[in-house]
Amino acid sequence: MTTESTSPATTVVPPRGRADRVALPPSRPVPAPPFVSSLVAADCAAVLLAALTLDHEQRGAALLMQLTACLAALNAYAGLYRPGAIASVLDELPTLAGRAAIAWCAAAALLAAQSPRGAIGPAALAAAYAVHLAFVCGCRAVLHHRRRTAARAHPSSALVIGTAPAARRLAGVLARHPEYGMRPVGIVATQRPEPAESSLPVLTTPEEIHRAVIQNSVRDAVFAGGAEAGGAEHADLVALLRHYGCAIRLVGDTGGGRTPMSQHLWGHACRRLDPPPAHRGRLPKRALDITVAGLMLAALSPLLLLCAAVIRLSDGPGVIFRQERVGQDGRLFTLLKFRTLRPADDEEAATRWSVAHDERMSVVGTFLRRTSLDELPQLWNVLRGDMSLVGPRPERPYFVAKFSRLHPGYAARHRMPVGLTGLAQVHGLRGDTSIEDRCRFDNHYIDHWSLWQDVCILLRTAASLIRPAGS
Q1: Is-contact 174 182, C-beta < 8 A?
Q2: Which of 140, 146, 239, 416 could be a cystine partner for 409, CB 3.0 to 4.6 Å?
Q3: pTM, rounded to two decimals
């Protein structure tokens, strides 16, 4: 087993009253801010107020509902409900005006198609649009002002990440300008810091980060140097901070992407690094799992029966090996495999890392492992919903607890259903290979998930079976 020396990280807290989950490092989900709800309410109120300028026949309930839904969808897609570090209604005005114009023109065209006599004239449409835009801008100006005032009075705790000199400079900017709503409580050094006086603690290990986040209720993490946060070398740190519910912002070089003029920290470009939606693609992914797993079970049923018969004749009774594994969100499930070796006892089965070169393994067991045929019963786990075809490989509770302490990004890989194969496996990270590399690949897969990526990984897995290496 290769676990590459890493400083101890988060502690594993025993679950309270739950026997079907493994204890993962505690996370802190961030509640939806009331600021966002207020923005949505302002858009809805603007539609109703603007509708009062129309004739009675033109302001039907169906039209108002369609207009409100269309406007909310357009604004959400444009990011107008995503609060940034600081906001200005003047910077938002072009986007607000464009989305409102599209929504009102679409609603007027739909009304004219349904009832030509009740069509909205150009003058009435312009008046409704003007009232709508004025009301929205006024509401947003008030909301942004109140948000800036609250941020200045009650800034949230923040960690500043980067090389020690750059992080100290940015921490000084935040301390001198509380209007940005962040109060630095610590510096996370990405390189070995040089001895220097600092009023803030310099954090260098995952254990120190964990303690600082919990003790100070940290809600923001700011990367000095911006674009480096997206690098693979910081993937574990980003995953750990997200696990604790921290909003991550990139300050400085944000990768060349344009940001609104108001999105800055005292002249430094700033943008928020948003995580992918937690449930994005769940239905398409599940549909792919059911379709492919069902077809494969039907097509491979003769091979499954043949493997079972050969194992029974060669190694005796007990064809299927059952083992407890950790799935999505720490849930425990029973993983199925063809038996390739009979462990001495339950403790060996739960805590021994690899049996790839065990002398007790028969010729049949060795062949099944080298060809990965022993994994075929897991198609039933996929069909049941315990697993997915593609995702991080599931591990035993003993090793999940151990690796979560050693590697800060390991617990974050349980955000998605575990899989029969994954991005790490198609890059050769199977069996006795680096756990640190595996969790980095797994978190990269989750952060950049797409259905096409799943298809590509399945095709690459099928191609690798032509030259099997086993596990």
Answers
A1: yes
A2: 239
A3: 0.54
272, 305, 324 - which closes a domain? 272
Find the domain containing 430 and state its range. Answer: 282-464
The reply to whether 363 and 433 lie within a common domain is yes
| Predicted local confidence at residue 412, as pLDDT | 80
Give the position of tokens 């062949």.
Answer: 367
Interatomic CA distance for residues 272 and 222, integer angstroms: 9
Tens-digit pLDDT profile for residues 210-229: 788 888 888 888 888 754 55
CA angle 112, 49, 143 (to 5 degrees): 130
Single-letter amino acid code for the residue at 325: R
| Token representation of residue 210 | 């964990």
| Triad 433, 439, 445: Cα angle to 5° | 120
Residues 311 and 421 in one domain: yes
Instruction: Give the distance between the most distant pair of CA atoms in the chain.
Output: 87
Tell me which residue has tokens 């906001």: 87
194 with 340, same domain?
Answer: no
Write out the H or E segment, with its range, that includes residue 462: helix 451-464
| Residue 267 domain flag | yes
Place of tokens 């060669």: 314
168 and 124 housed in the same domain? no
Question: Tell me, what DSSP letter sits at residue 117?
Answer: G
Whether the CB-CB separation of 289 and 389 falls below 8 Å is answered with yes
DSSP state of 263: -
Asked whether the beta carbons of 432 and 356 are under 8 A apart, the reply is yes
Among candidates 146, 127, 130, 125, which has minimal Cα distance to 39? Answer: 146
Q: Which two tokens stand for residue 66?
A: 């369609």
Of the candidates 403, 57, 194, the one whose C-alpha atom is nearest the C-alpha of residue 394 is 403
Report yes or no on 414 lying in a domain: yes
Residues 187, 263 share a domain:
yes
CB atoms within 10 A of CB 257: 10
pLDDT of residue 420: 92
